[in-house]
Specification:
Elements (H helix, E strand, L loop, with lengths): L1 E4 L22 E3 L6 E4 L9 E2 L6 E2 L4 E4 L8 E2 L4 E10 L5 E9 L20 H10 L12 H4 L10 E5 L9 H8 L1 H15 L3 E7 L3 H11 L6 E6 L8 H9 L14 E5 H13 L5 E7 L7 E6 L4 H7 L9 E4 L6 E2 L13 E5 L17 H5 L6 H9 L3 H6 L10 H5 L6 H28 L1
Parallel strand pairs: 1-12, 2-15, 10-11, 10-13, 11-12, 14-18
Antiparallel strand pairs: 3-9, 4-6, 5-8, 6-7, 8-9, 14-15, 16-17, 16-18
Helix pairs in contact: 1-4, 3-5, 4-7, 10-13
């Protein structure tokens, strides 16, 4: 095993204030069950899950309550034992609507035994391990929530030689992954080895930013005397080193092509939380029913890293952290760079909820966006070498074809451009809207092409 600094410098990047001191030394606390859990059927990238039960049904923890509805979809499981009180369509933290199963806990927290633990995974066929991960509803826990069984099923013509376990956690305020590495390093390392076996990858890289020396030491201790195919790569503290394409370049020097995926360059990236969940699914037979979320911000009485059940309302999490002292001017699901502002505390924890951030009035600025002044700061900050200034003007003019030609779909929505813009232009919002319109156009084109082929 080797530990060394990353050899390659990513493009762009910014250095926001990190504010991780609010929770970095706070050990993970297990939150008691709330009175009601609201479990979304959309907790992942891709098709929503479909509820398979009805009002009044009794459920056990880990019981399947939502089945996947396509290859890019993920199963959803009951976070505890109890009674289904209702099934209705509600709005998620992302602002989309999905079917939601409301469960009233019975206080017993009794597990179902529907999944079989695989203690001898080293000698188990990779397909069996992959099926266990799919059955457990594991998704990426550090970003968009891509179903893990899909990521771990590359086409036969795209062999994977390197897996990267992402412990960078470059988003300001968030420390959930940091605490996982300190408190569960051995389990993360076992999860990494399970991923490596499934993919047949010969190289394992653990990526951690240099502002987390304790996490580096914890992972070094857990990995121990592994051979030289295993490296801990120390990244400079610079946002967005946690973005997978940027991380791949910083560690391997490989450039994921425009419109491509990490598998196109022989790499798969998984978050440390995902590696831990994969280990829990395989070794313990436990579906993904809980996660660690950083609940933080200056107005919060007791900022914490909380192990909470999927479906826990944000309001209950904030209450568990002592409530809010004074006035909260803004609530964000996630971190300040890529998170989404909330209009209420009705949203609930999902598999991808890395943080809940409470901001005071002094941290929130009201401004009016101005025309682009062509200063070029957004171009210098962009980690994927786009021209956000030009793209934003194309999107303002609703010229989506021009934006598509200028690779708007490569935007990772990191927020670096908006962070640097002195004209306060809502660049990320333009990109998100543009990507949505272009995505719809691409789907329309595919449908037309499929229709022609049928004829």
């Amino acid at each position: 095993m080797k530990t060394y600094k990353a050899q390659y410098k990513i493009a762009g990047g910014v250095h926001p204030e990190y504010h991780k001191e609010l929770t970095r030394d706070k050990g993970i606390e297990i939150m008691p069950l709330p009175p009601l859990l609201h479990v979304y059927m959309s907790q992942h990238l891709g098709a929503h899950a479909k509820p398979i039960l009805k009002k009044g049904d009794k459920v056990l923890r880990g019981q399947l309550i939502g089945e996947s509805t396509g290859f890019v979809s993920a199963a959803v499981h009951a976070p505890t034992s109890g009674t289904v009180k209702n099934i209705e369509e509600t709005r998620t933290a992302a602002g989309t609507f999905t079917q939601t199963v409301e469960i009233e806990p019975d206080g017993q927290d009794q597990w179902t035994s529907s999944l079989t633990p695989i203690s001898n995974w080293e000698s188990t066929d990779s397909k069996v391990l992959l099926n266990a991960i799919a059955a457990a509803g594991i998704t990426g826990m550090g970003g968009a929530g891509f179903p893990s069984h899909v990521k771990l099923s590359p086409p036969s013509g795209k062999p994977i030689d390197t897996i990267i376990i992402n412990g960078a956690e470059c988003e300001p305020f968030l420390t959930a992954d940091y605490r996982l590495m300190l408190e569960h390093a051995a389990e993360i390392w076992e999860g990494a080895r399970i991923i490596s076996k499934i993919l047949g990858a010969k190289n394992i890289r653990i990526a951690i930013e240099d502002n987390k020396p304790e996490a580096i030491s914890a992972m070094e201790k857990a990995i121990g005397t592994a051979d030289d195919s295993v490296h801990i790569v120390i990244l400079p503290t610079e946002y967005p080193h946690g973005a997978e394409k940027q991380q791949i370049f910083a560690i391997t020097g490989r450039q994921v092509p425009s419109g491509g995926l990490p598998m196109d360059v022989g790499v798969v990236v998984q978050n440390v939380g995902t590696a831990l969940a994969i280990r829990d699914a395989v070794v313990n037979g436990h579906p993904l029913t809980e996660r660690v979320t950083t609940v933080t911000g200056l107005p919060l009485a007791q900022p914490k890293n909380v192990m909470a059940r999927i479906g826990t309302p944000y309001s209950d999490l904030i209450k568990f952290c002592g409530g809010i002292n004074g006035v909260a001017a803004k609530i964000i699901s996630g971190g300040p760079m890529m998170g989404l502002a909330q209009s209420s505390l009705d949203a609930t924890i999902t598999k991808t909820t890395s943080g809940i951030l409470v901001l005071p009035a002094k941290a929130v600025t009201f401004y009016e966006a101005m025309p682009c002044i062509s200063c070029g700061r957004c171009v210098e900050a962009c980690p994927v070498n786009l021209m956000p200034c030009d793209l934003s003007q194309m999107l303002e003019a609703e010229d989506y074809e021009a934006a598509r030609d200028c690779n708007v779909m490569d935007c990772v929505e990191c927020g670096c451009c908006a962070y640097e813009c002195p004209a306060h232009r809502p660049l990320v919002q333009y990109m998100r809207q543009g990507k949505a319109r272009v995505s719809a156009k691409i789907l329309e084109e595919k449908a037309k092409q499929a229709g022609k082929e049928k004829k």
